Amino acid sequence: MAADGRNIDSGWLRLSPIGLVILFVRGGGRFLRENVPLLLGAGAGAAFVEQIGPRELALAAAAGILLAMLVTLVYHRRFRFRLEGDVLVVQKGVVERKELRISAGRVQQIIVEQPLYMRPFGVVRFSLDTPGGVVAEVDLPGISRHLAEDLRVSLNAARGGPGAGRDGDGTGDMPAGGEGDVVPLYAIGPVALTLHGLASNHAYVAAVVAAPFLQPLERLLLRNGHGLAEQRWLETARDWPWLMIPASMLVLVVLLVLLSVVFAWLRYYGYRLQRERRRFIQRSGLLTWREQALASSKLQAVEWVEPVVGRLLGRGYLVCRQYGGHAPGGDDSGHRFVVPGLDRSGGDRLSQCFWPDLTSASAHESGSEQDNAVLLADRRVSRLYRRAMLVRLEVAAGLAMLLVLVAGGPAWLLVVGGVALFLAPPIAHLRWRALGWKRSGRYLLVCRGLLGRRTSLFPLENVQAVTLRESWFQRRHGLSTLHLQLASGPVSLPWIERATALEIADEALFRVESNAVPRNVPGNCS
Amino acid sequence: MPFANGPVDPQSLPAVRAIPLAPVSPRFPACRSLSRMLGMLPVIFLAWLFVSMTGLPAGLRPLVAGVVGAGGVVFAVLGWFEARRRAYGLREQDLAYRSGLLVHRTTILPFQRIQHVEIASNPLERAFGLVRIICYTAGGAAADLVVQGLEREAGERLREYLLARVRTLPDGR
Question: Which residues in chain A are closer than 8 Å to B93, comparing Cβ atoms?
């Protein structure tokens, strides 16, 4: 029973009154994001304002806000949802009425978020994903936290009932238990959180976000920088440019890294991962509290990511890949199931939690202490890959230089081409060194990268389609590239022996077609 | 079902290399060549634009025309031979499709992974009486299999067969 007296089984439910404000603010934010750059870009906004006058503009804005409030009010009044057995039904729409029906068995991830501004009102945002959708399929902004919890538990219970086996997860032999069967798997500490901030790519993201503001900032400084010109340190900087340029770069990098650490603390503060029956649940967040629940049967692949700095610090993070993968070019960072701040042994241990028979499979294969290194490749691809990569890079750089020469381009482009020619051999070597793979029973592990590393681990029965690709050069040397399509995205194993590629392809197809192996059964990792 | 993880004998697995493949329609190479020639039209337009806008010396213009023309012919001829290599095969549990001339590709899609099947044809394919079968999977566009160069009747038969197989399979996706 929800605290406000509403129960998920008590017929149609509506968003809370504060949900009206949340809908209005979110809609306004979306409108600004989508339209303001169009209006203000290239001075169009200024010309527009000059054309119609500020008073008319204010009137139009007021009318627009009133209309938006009215539309939001109607949307809020018509938005309702209920749980009918194991089906979540959502009705919404202003002009066009929509009814969405989602079976509990189809739900692969549930996210409950509570940003800072929702906390005083005790409401949360509840969203869920299904396979095939790249964005949240159902979004309930502004329902009480207790109702969200009730809904999550009910959906889980519906999956665990008679219909639980529909997705073929083969978990019918799981020990019976209610939601109380909670196994803590991982909790992050302050040191690991800080190291994750240092190691993660948030710094690059911050740099990309900050880049558009640099030019306006420069213009602002030039316009209002009369006082700055008299600063003594600036005069010193002018006298020592070769010292000041690296120092400025260093300050910028330190600022970005600090920003990255702050972001990591905001996003993953108090991170806890636990298993509740057939789901993995993570909770974290300093300002925005977030809970993500991932159905173990929907887990397609586990990716161990070690960025460049992470490799130096011995830190990485796990990404649990589900159906649908990530939206191409879209921001899906909020929907990725990421386990942050792990060292390699932690990554190994959690991988074994996600894929419980991974340990025994490794032990069966090699029978050595190396078994514990689950996420470590033990085989390289052919050395010819390095040669082919080198040829590709050299040809690309050579053609680019030729084009610059023919078109009479600037000399610095030729210098860049020359540097690329010079860097091609080490790049080809690093690419080859990073490429590795391992078979562990029914699992395949593929590692790739340049300076950083991305290691994909998945059971062969999760493969959707298999493609064998052979160039004439590969055929001459008895090599193949194996493309394995997963529901979470493609994984390539390039330049391996043809016989091995065929063997892996045969086994993957056999496991898919024979349903020989049960789907993922969460292990006891306590 | 009790959990089990027994070994699998690699020798007992159905082999990819043993899939019998049947060639696609003999009309497909001509269709493919024509399609590639039509695909060269934008390149020819760009070459004409380059020649007319850069003021290329008159002596070099035949050279550019020759290079573009020869490229188009080679492209179309390669398309012809590539189309002749295309073949598809059906087994009890999967569909295989072979393509590529310099780079050989063989894709195998288990019926169990097919979400739905579509039959499609563009005006050029219709002129040759050909269709293509698109098998959609849960893996997105990269995992979808497109079987090109089927005669309409064969395509419709294949679609019906695939749909029937998909219907009879347990929902294990």
Answer: 509, 513
